[in-house]
C-alpha cells in the first residue's frame, strides 16, 4: 500500500499522531524535498525523490511515471509512505503521483493521511477568522467545489449540475464511527445535516 502522509506546515510539533505512527511502521519512506525529510527524520530515514517545479507537463509526466515505476513494486506487499509538507490532497505532489499509480498500477492500493494544510496554517498564524464561504485558488480554472453543512444534498447537486459539475461525493461525520461516504449519484440522500459535505467535480 502507498500512503500519502501530510506532515503539516513545517513545525515538527504539528504532525498528527497517525502520521507519526505510519512513519514508524513504514517499510520505506519517501519525500519530495529536504524540509519534509527533516520532519520525518525523528521517526524514519527518508529517501528524497526528485519532483522538479516545472510547467512542462511532458517532462513532469515522465518524472511522475519514473517515480511511480519505482514505488509500485515496493508498495504491492509493503506499507510505503510518501510524506509531504501540508496535506496530500490539496495542491500536492502526491495527487499527481497517485493519479499515475492508478493509471499504470491499479493493483496498488493508495490512501492518504491528512495533515494541517497551508489554508488552516495561514488562518492560525495571521489570526484570520473565516466563518462564511470563501474561495481558494492557485489561479487555475475552478474544477472542484466543496459544500459544507449540506442539509439538502440533492438540491445542491442539481444546482451544481447546471454549472457543469458532473461527479459528486456525499460525506457525513467523517472519521467517526458513523461515517458515511457515497459516490453513486443515485444513492445520495435528499437530506443531510450539519456534518454533511457535498464534493463536486468537473470530470472530463
Automatic annotation (TrEMBL):
Against Pfam families, the record matches this protein to: TP_methylase
| Domain (Tetrapyrrole methylase) ranges | 1-144
Q: Name one GO biological process term.
A: methylation
Recite the UniProt keywords alphabetically: Cobalamin biosynthesis, Methyltransferase, Transferase
Q: Which GO terms describe its molecular function?
A: precorrin-2 C20-methyltransferase activity
Pathway where this protein functions: Cofactor biosynthesis; adenosylcobalamin biosynthesis
Q: Which family does it belong to?
A: Belongs to the precorrin methyltransferase family.
The entry's protein name is Cobalt-factor II C20-methyltransferase
**Source organism per UniProt:** Methanolobus profundi
Amino acid at each position: 500500500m502507498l500512503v500519502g502522509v501530510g506532515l503539516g506546515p513545517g513545525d515538527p510539533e504539528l504532525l498528527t499522531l497517525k502520521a507519526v505512527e505510519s512513519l514508524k511502521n513504514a517499510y520505506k519512506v519517501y519525500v519530495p524535498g529536504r524540509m519534509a525529510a527533516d520532519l520525518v527524520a525523528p521517526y524514519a530515514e527518508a529517501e528524497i525523490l526528485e519532483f522538479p517545479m516545472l510547467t512542462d507537463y511532458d517532462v513532469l509526466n515522465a518524472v511522475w511515471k519514473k517515480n511511480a515505476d519505482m514505488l509500485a513494486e515496493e508498495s504491492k506487499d509493503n506499507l510505503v509512505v510518501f510524506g509531504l509538507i501540508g496535506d496530500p490532497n490539496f495542491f500536492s505532489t502526491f495527487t499527481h503521483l497517485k493519479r499515475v499509480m492508478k493509471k499504470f498500477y491499479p493493483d496498488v492500493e493508495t490512501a492518504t493521511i491528512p495533515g494541517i494544510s497551508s489554508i488552516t496554517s495561514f488562518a492560525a498564524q495571521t489570526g484570520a477568522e473565516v466563518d462564511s464561504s470563501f474561495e481558494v485558488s492557485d489561479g487555475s480554472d475552478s474544477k472542484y467545489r466543496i459544500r459544507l453543512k449540506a442539509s439538502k444534498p440533492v438540491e445542491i447537486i442539481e444546482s451544481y449540475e447546471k454549472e457543469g459539475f458532473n461527479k459528486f461525493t456525499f460525506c457525513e461525520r467523517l472519521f467517526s464511527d458513523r461515517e458515511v461516504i457515497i459516490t453513486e449519484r443515485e444513492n445520495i440522500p435528499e437530506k443531510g445535516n450539519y456534518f454533511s459535505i457535498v464534493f463536486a467535480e468537473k470530470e472530463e
